[in-house]
């Protein structure tokens, strides 16, 4: 039997292409999402940058979790995500690719972390979901 954990994000249009995302987490402030010019004013990241941030965060957190489970003395794990947009066969912009550099900051330079390096990606919810494709149902309320 599979376990499910629901989550909710509410996105409100404030003006033009400026949105505010509210999360179902107590004490977490909403974030502003906006498009760069000429559509928006870059008051916040746009959607594909949020996807890249989610991938970088998830991979970093997965590696950090594994390293701490192995009791490796780690200061933290950072990531840089570089992506490319390209038009698909219908001329629509899509995320073509993302390259992620994950950088653990280890205090123990000689420690063998090869096991974590083998498995951490598999525990990243976002990366693995995107790689396999996410079924998304869309409904328009009028």
Account of the 3D structure:
- The chain is α+β, with helices and mostly antiparallel strands and 142 residues long.
- The protein has two domains: 45 residues; 87 residues, GMP Synthetase, Chain A, domain 3 (2-Layer Sandwich), CATH 3.30.300.20.
- It is built from three helices and five strands.
- The strands form two sheets. The chain has a three-stranded antiparallel beta sheet with strand order 1-2-3, with no helix packed on it. A two-stranded antiparallel sheet has the order 4-5.
- β1 and β2 form a beta hairpin.
- The protein is globular and about 55 Å long.
- The mean pLDDT is 92.
Write a short abstract of this structure.
The chain has 142 residues and is an alpha+beta fold. The protein contains 3 helices and 5 strands.
Keywords:
142 residues; alpha+beta; GMP Synthetase, Chain A, domain 3; 2 domains; three-stranded antiparallel beta sheet; two-stranded antiparallel sheet; 31% strand; globular
Task: Walk me through the topology.
Elements: E1 9-15, E2 18-23, E3 31-33, H1 47-69, E4 74-87, E5 93-106, H2 114-119, H3 125-132
Antiparallel strand pairs: 1-2, 2-3, 4-5
Classify the helix fraction into a percent range: 25-40%
Order of helices and strands: EEEHEEHH
Count of the domains: 2
CATH architecture assignment of the largest domain:
2-Layer Sandwich
